[in-house]
């Protein structure tokens, strides 16, 4: 089986946030051989995408293995993934555009970081205005919106939804796994209403029936199910049709990378099956 490669760029400067971050890039198996350019998927929490050694939780998406398998089944299905490391203590701040007291109530460990949202739009602007231009001039990418997606899980799902809807001229595809929409549910719904549907989009959403980020709070599974359902309904209300949004409920799935890894191929098949 042919395998892709991982490039790591350390200390990539984020001028919008005045910070540095590691970028982890998956290149498909034929990248150095084929005369072609590739669709691009921007993903968050890159520490958890490729290797157990860098994972924060000991489990990974194993994106490289999944995309290698997809490629080896059909060489036309080859993609570049741009993984952006999370900022550790800055994660909640960068992955939510709004300050969230609710987030602190549900996730006490988030409150200890001192950052409960507020920098999400700066983070999104970094992806669009700084990172994407660099990637497009450095790698063999298909630059147009039809071939540009944004994907994440949990808080990464929340910020993916906001990024895709804010920059509908840049992204045509959003994948939001097990999104922590409860962190700023009312703000997310208001944002969807204010942005509306300006372009043709494909939006994938899912949630497991046994999700939890806080095992001490028995209400968490219902919180995940209800907040994602409410965001899905808001997307429908502003004009996204049934064929625009795929909303999946994964029976028995919990809140971890192993479950997202299992659901990733189905997402890819739907998101890129135009």
Short description:
With 274 residues, the chain is of the alpha/beta class.
Account of the protein in words:
The chain has 274 residues and is α/β, with parallel strands linked by helices. It has one domain: Alpha/Beta hydrolase fold, catalytic domain (Rossmann fold). It has helices at 63-73, 91-94, 101-106, 108-113, 120-138, 155-166, 185-195, 220-237, 257-271, and strands spanning 5-14, 19-27, 40-43, 80-84, 148-153, 173-177, 202-208, 245-250. The protein has an eight-stranded mixed sheet, with helices on both faces. Helix 6 (155-166) packs parallel to helix 7 (185-195) and helix 7 packs parallel to helix 8 (220-237). It is globular. The two termini are 26 Å apart. InterPro entries: AB_hydrolase_fold, Esterase-like, Mycobacterial_A85_antigen. This is Alpha/beta hydrolase. It comes from Clostridium rhizosphaerae. It holds the Pfam family Esterase.
Topology:
Elements: E1 5-14, E2 19-27, E3 40-43, H1 63-73, E4 80-84, H2 91-94, H3 101-106, H4 108-113, H5 120-138, E5 148-153, H6 155-166, E6 173-177, H7 185-195, E7 202-208, H8 220-237, E8 245-250, H9 257-271
Parallel strand pairs: 3-4, 3-5, 5-6, 6-7, 7-8
Antiparallel strand pairs: 1-2, 2-4
Helix pairs in contact: 6-7, 7-8
Protein traits:
8 strands; hydrolase; Rossmann fold; single chain; alpha/beta; 9 helices; hydrolase activity; eight-stranded mixed β-sheet; 274 residues
Strand portion, in percent? 15-25%
Sheet with most strands:
8 strands, mixed
First CA to last CA: what distance? 26 Å
**Helix amount, in percent?**
25-40%
What order do the SSEs take from the amino end to the carboxyl end, as H and E? EEEHEHHHHEHEHEHEH
Average pLDDT confidence is: 93
What CATH architecture label applies?
Answer: 3-Layer(aba) Sandwich
CATH class equals: Alpha Beta
Report the principal-axis shape: globular
Total strands: 8
Radius of gyration: 17 Å
At the fourth CATH level, what is the homologous superfamily?
Alpha/Beta hydrolase fold, catalytic domain
Biggest sheet strand line-up: 1-2-4-3-5-6-7-8
CATH topology: Rossmann fold
Number of helices: 9
Keywords: Hydrolase
InterPro entries: AB_hydrolase_fold, Esterase-like, Mycobacterial_A85_antigen
Protein name: Alpha/beta hydrolase
GO molecular function, one term: hydrolase activity
